[in-house]
Amino acid sequence: MATLCRTTGKLLGKVQFIPVSSRNFSSIKCSRSYKNVWKTCACVFGGGILLYAANYKHGGTVYALKAKQPDELAKSVKLTSRERRFIKFASVEYGGQLYMTPQDFLESVVEQEPRPRLKRRILTAKEIDQLRDQVPSLKKGSPQMFRNMRDKGIISYTEYLFLLSILTKPTSGFQIAFNMFDTDGNQRVDKNEFLVMEKIFSYAWRGKRGMTEESPAEGKGPQDTYINDDQGLQRRHNVDTLLQVHFFGKKGTNDLKFEGFRQFMENLQTEVLELEFCEFSKGHETISEVDFAKILLRYTYLDTDEYDMYLDRLLDRVRDERGITFEEFKTFCQFLNNLEDFTIAMRMYTLADHPISKDEFHRAVRICTGQAQSPHVVRTVFAIFDADGDGLLSYKEFIAIMKDRLHRGFKSYAKNEGWEAFKSCVKQEMKSSV
Q1: What is the residue-averaged pLDDT of the chain?
Q2: Strand pairing class (97-99; 188-189)
């Protein structure tokens, strides 16, 4: 037994777990149900250790994944969380490069895992032409465009990063984003100016890895100079994507003006929020206050006890369960896109970092966004985040959790190792299955 314990300790010291962010929470279960999960994990984990010990004792062969040699590790490229997620959800391929479809993109921002599929679909040149013909013009854009198109379009990795950034942009930042593309300052963006985005991301990627423009080996094509993971994640492509056709027409000769750009950004933000809201509303006009809390907490890295604490606190305090409408939900999410301005306002308003009242919260939000929040939403927020029930909100704790929500799980966290990481991983898995 002592040998078994020592073996267990060595194994745990070498195992690294990455916490999985939560997604759907359809019901609240009592903590007693977690005991069965822990028993199951203990049995499976313990059984694996016993099997290892038996093979070790009898000289049997234990098969494991082949470890990379030091020289291989030095050559391999460490992928970012966004790169890994794009590779995971991209369902089509053309010319050795991966692409997302509109449906892939929507799933990547609201789902934990992509829909089941046997393999990626390899597109032909003829299919690429057919997809280009099905992209609607900018004038026909709507908050349902991505859902209506489903698999009828392709999105490159650089465009994926661009679309992600749109989701967190406040309305005041739309003009700034447009001006970044408008390199000649004529209030119009042409296709070549838009494609500068790819070069910017390409140079940033190369610079991060200490590469120069001349560093690729001779005789290799552009697709071989970007990433050494055999996954086809590249920063350049010669294919007309969904965004290029939507913004600049099928011939690529149209100019993109600010009004069309602004409308596209608003439509995309609304579409993602509608998708998220409908997931919980199940066809009704409102979501419950508890569902609202689950949406706010779904991308956080809280452990199970902390997560339950917020929901229990809300259940104990909410008396007027009239639900949250989509407009109320959308207005609050638009406020979250102004979270940096809200943080600055709070620091100037409460120099000593004092908690704030509902009236102060209302006033700060209206100053930052120009919109007034629903009193019922503010009461619900205070019911979730007011720790001691004194009617005051610790805005530091609120902002920290809302930043997790805003970045949708893409914030960087230090990775734990050993037993603590194992417990954290199991807790996150239990939370995602509740």
Answers
A1: 75
A2: unpaired
The predicted-structure confidence for 383-420, as pLDDT tens digits, reads as follows 999 888 888 888 777 888 888 888 776 654 333 434 44
Q: Which of 243, 282, 285 is nearest to 145 (CA)?
A: 243
Question: What is d(CA 191, CA 194) in angstroms, rounded to the nearest whole number?
Answer: 5
Give residue 353's pLDDT.
66
Residue 30 burial class via C-beta count within 10 angstroms: exposed 0-12, middle 13-18, buried 19 and up? exposed
Residue 391 φ/ψ region, left for φ over 0, alpha for ψ in the -120 to 50 degree band, beta for the rest: left
Burial class (CB in 10 A: 0-12, 13-18, 19+), 79: middle
CB 189 within 8 A of CB 256: yes
User: Three-class SS of residue 132?
Assistant: helix
Q: What share of the chain is helix, strand, coil (3-state, %, to 5)?
A: 60, 5, 35
pTM of the model: 0.71
Q: What is the pLDDT of residues 300-355, one digit of tens each?
A: 878 888 899 999 999 998 887 889 999 999 999 999 999 888 888 877 776 656 78
User: Do residues 287 and 323 touch, judged by C-beta distance below 8 A?
Assistant: yes
The number of beta carbons lying within 10 Å of the beta carbon of residue 390 is 9
For the chain, the C-alpha Rg in angstroms (whole number) is: 25
